[in-house]
Structures are given as structure tokens and as C-alpha cells.
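Input sequence (292 aa), recorded before submission:
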Amino acid sequence: MNREITMYEWLGEENDEWGIVLKTKVKKILYRGSSKNFKEIIVGESKAFGKILVLKENDNFTWQVAEKWDSYSEMLVHVPMCSHPKPERILVIGGGDGSTVREILKHKEVQEVVIVDIDDKIVNVGKNILNIDNGALKDPRVKIIVANAIDFVRDYTGLSFDIIIGDYSDPMLGSPASDLIKEDFIRNIKAIMNPSGILTVQSGSPIFQREIFIELINNVKKWFKIVSPYSYVVPFYPGGIWSFVAASDKLDPRKPLRKFNEAVFYNEKIHAASFALPEFIKQKICDNNLKI
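Predicted structure, C-alpha cell format:
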């Protein structure tokens, strides 16, 4: 349902458990609906961040992505892409809003991107209402599959992937993404990657979701020789800092092999610096006896 509003309203993150509200004024609601996975799907247009996508999962509203100042998508994508000598085949778990594939297609080496998103409503909103993908979701190199990623990865028998990117909603208990940080899923991902492939997954807020962050690192370490968490500032996410986990058997995700000059935030020095973890993250890793 589309509707315009004549007065400003506030839209964004609401989390009772964390005691967090993080909102921006929106001058227009472009879409408000629901799906089998999300109680509400809302697209608003704001002055500060342009178009934004907010989802209601369980009883919380979570800020997914924004048109402006999207450091999240840049750091999720360009770190693995620039650490690989020739990233041709990419798998995106989630990513139906289109922001991740937008960044992927900025790399001329890419021949095919497969997006596996559990929710067709998110894909439709990304294509037709949110429109922050710069046409990437309709690019002929992009194949969109609406399916549960757990089933897709387990049953996949096609060509292996150079890069696999986990761009899903926060994997909190009971959420659609809650099983995507489990060991079985990581093992099945490893099976469909090239031997020199790179996995990168968003691992949540290192302030409010430390248990998710540690569980993911622990499970990834069981299947990959090189595991490197990194972090970066994201202005519209709770806590202002977000974590990621990059992993490979042969390539070091900390070392960019190719230059990239089409970003707002990302560059070669930012790439290297993002792996210099804040002390509280290092301490959490140390407390859990994880050697990184």
C-alpha cells in the first residue's frame, strides 16, 4: 500500500531489549506492508538518509538500509571483492533490497551474481519501491532466487562461487536469519566455494549483539583457516559501529589485491584499518579463547 503523509513522522530502530530508539524524520511513507517473515515492511523517504527500509521482526523494528551514507554495504562488499584477484561468481545470502548487489556490480570482473532471499516482498520492494540499487536487481548478470538459504546452500550442485556474502537481517533467536550463523550452514557454504574463495558475513552490533558475533566467529573458525573479524562505522545502526567476519583458506581478507575508486567510504587504507579492532572487541574475542 502506498500513501503520502503531510506531516513528518519518525521511522527507524526500536528495540525494547536493548533500550534503544534510533529514528529519522521521514516526509513520506512510500510503502507499508507485511509478509510471511516480517510483521511490517516500511519504506520511508527522509532528508538525512534518503530512502530507508525498516522491518518489524518479532516486536522490534530494525533499520535495514539507507540510500545515503551506506557504509555498511560498501564495507560488506568491497573488502572481500578487493581481496580476491578475480571475483567472477558471487553468491549473496539475503540482499533482496539491492544495495549489496549494487556495490558488487561496480567491479568489472563480475560475471554472475546469485541472490538468495527468503522473502519475495523484500525483493519486490527493492526492485520497485526502494530503488536504491541503481538498476542492479534487473541487471542480466543477476539471478534472484526466493528460497530459504539453508535449503539452497545444502542442495546446491552448480558452479562454485568465488565470493559468498551474508547480507541478512540480524540473526536473533526466532528471526528468519537465526540459523544462518550455525555450524551446519557454514560447513555447507564452504562446500560450494572455490578453494580460494572468500566468505564475508555481517555479524551484528559488537556492542549489543556480542554473543552473535562470538558464535559466528567460533563456527567459521571450525571450517576456515583464515578468519578475520573487522568493523566500521555505520551512522544509522545502533551503537554506530558494525561488525563483519571475513574468512578464507588461501587468501588473506586483510590485504587488498586490487584498487577500487568508486566508493564513498571504502578505500585501500580504510580496508586495512577496519581490521584494527577496538579494544573492547579484542577483549571479547580473548575472553572466549578465540585466536584470530
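Checked by second reader. Residues 71-287 form a domain with the Rossmann fold fold (CATH 3.40.50.150).
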